[in-house]
UniProtKB/TrEMBL annotation:
Organism of provenance: Halorubrum ejinorense
Phylogenetic placement of the source organism: Archaea, Methanobacteriati, Methanobacteriota, Stenosarchaea group, Halobacteria
Residue ranges crossing the lipid bilayer per the database entry: none
Annotated Pfam families: CheC
PANTHER family given in the database record: PROTEIN PHOSPHATASE CHEZ
Protein name (Swiss-Prot/TrEMBL): Chemotaxis protein CheC
GO biological process: chemotaxis
Keywords: Chemotaxis, Hydrolase
Xref: InterPro entries: CheC, CheC-like_sf, CheZ_family_phosphatases
CDD domains xref list: CheC_ClassIII
Domain CheC-like protein, chain residue ranges per copy: 95-129, 305-341
GO molecular-function terms, A-Z: hydrolase activity
Amino acid sequence: MRVDVRALGACNRLAEQGAKQAAGALSDLTGTDLAVEVTGASVASGEDLAESFAGRESIGVSVGLRGGLDGEAVLAFDAVNADALLSLLPGGQSMERSAVTEVGNIALGGFLDGWANYLGAAIDMSPPRYFEADGAAVLPDGALAGDGVFLFESRLDATTTDLDFSIYMLPDSGPFRDLIVGKTAPAAAAGDAPGAASNDGTASTAVPYDSLSTFSSLAKRGSANAADNIAMMTGLETSVDVSRLRFVPLADVPAEVGTEPHAGTVFELQGEPSGYLAILFEESSAAAVADAMLPMETDEPLGEMAENALCELGNVMTSGFIDGWANVLGTTITHSPPEFVHDIGASTISPLVAKLSERQDYGFVIDTAIRTEGIQARCDVYALPDERELARALDRLSES
């Protein structure tokens, strides 16, 4: 099966529209303004999903889907926000289970309306099932058994209270398979016809699905290499919290990085695939990691010596991250000298997104969170490959 990138982008827009409908329905119910932060599709194995959800405690509801679209949809709140949620609902604490179930029923119904309208077929929801779950138990059992599934995730945030939640949809094959292979790309929702030209006038891109799963595994291996390089250069134990391949609107990426100050390095990749890679630490984490690398204390936490140390670290991490890609894809990938950045997170990545957006509207983003023990430092790696060059490389991988 080949995944049509334009069709997948159109499906992503359907999910975004659904999330906005869900936000509107919940705003009416709770009297609180809700905004959609981001919607994206992940290609993930059961192991990837288990790692992504590790450590989370959630409450929410799940429903089975039948008819126009088969699969399962889930509305999940972080358990720590349960009191904030219940304070907004009729009945409050005394009606916890029934109140949350009703919220889930309304939100998921709104989320699925756009899909049903496009497909021209009703999507039947099973009665909502309330759950309290740890980790990936929030997802249906079948999700963790697969070696590669599509997961649509929409994250919503309340603007006036400490409340955020996510909607997950895991579509089965069948009607969804027809959508993403481009036979019936959702032109009505996206404004694009199947196989239409992208914003640079080139034809739609199709990517072998099996190779996407392989590339996701490559990204995970590169993340582990990058973590090992941090450990080697700082002497601090590191671990990869999460690493996954997501398909997202490029315009949404800066908002995901956020408005907190970050410091790190950015690189331009040359070869196939080309693109960009950013290694970003929260400001305090950057200072702590640089301090661990320097032989003496400095008066400036992120002065010239720290900047040089982070550039050296970024160089080694980037090589470790992309070397595995080149070996398996059978290509040569090089990178530019490191460019040190120290700014609001969104501002550090916006220039990279702007350059890539000249060629494409959506992108396969590899995001990785690496945690350093002892000094509680966290590093986020964002890889933004050119989708057409990635598709060509994956084609060769599929043929071999």
